[in-house]
Structure formats: C-alpha cells, structure tokens
Write the structure tokens for this entry.
Amino acid sequence: MRLNKRSFKEKVTPRKLAFFSIFVLSLSFVCFDAFKKAGEERVEVLYFTNPACRPAHRVDELMREIEREFGDKIELHWYNVAMFESDEEEAKEVKALREKYKVYGVPFIVINGKPLSKAYTRENLIMEICKYFIIAKPKACG
C-alpha cells in the first residue's frame, strides 16, 4: 500500500511524532550510558587458595599473570581457605563465601558470581573473563 502525502500526514499526528521523538532520544541516552559504562567495566574474580597446598601453587602463579594482564579491568580477591590443622581460622566473610559457592577444596575460582567449571588454564581463564566485556575489551582479550 502506497501512502500519498495527505494520508501520511493523517497517520502521523503531532502526538505520535512527539512520542517517537522522546523514544529515540531516550534510546540514545541509554546507548550513550552503556558505552560510557563499558569503559568502566570490571570483572570480579574470587580466588580461593591455601599457601600450604602445593597443587594450588601453579594456579596462584597463573592468577598473578592474569592480574598483571588485565590490570584494573578485573577486581581480583584472594581468599586463604583453612584446609589444614595448622591454618589460621577463616574470617566470617570467607566462611560465608565458601558456603555460598560450595568451596570444598582449593584452588577454586569464581568469575562474576559463577564458579569456573573448566580446567584452570590460562586460555580458559582469559576466555571466561573476556566474555563479560561487551564493548571495551581489554588488550588481553585479543
């Protein structure tokens, strides 16, 4: 169906035009705000470890590398988990987080609230962290 000028003017009332203008304007603010926040994006990584646990040492070093590569783009929290009799008692915060994420052993990694269920390799960690950056991906994401 073709619209001639007269029928177009009849269908597009000033009220409809105003609503459309407000919609487009609000959408542009939402997009601008999302783009602005993308530069401020940070991924939260919780890392549960124990210094006396030898298998965790390799992952400890891997987490230090990840922290260097991502810099201020990730917020890395280290938690020492009491696993042995000689370990100091855990803080209430650590106990609560262990219960929340069901941390029964170390090393254990949580990225943005989701436990990492893949092997703790450099590639898997980078891939999992990078999927949370939508617009402004860090250099480490390639």
About this structure: The helical segments are 5-11, 14-38, 54-70, 92-101, 122-130. The first strand starts at residue 43 and ends at 49.
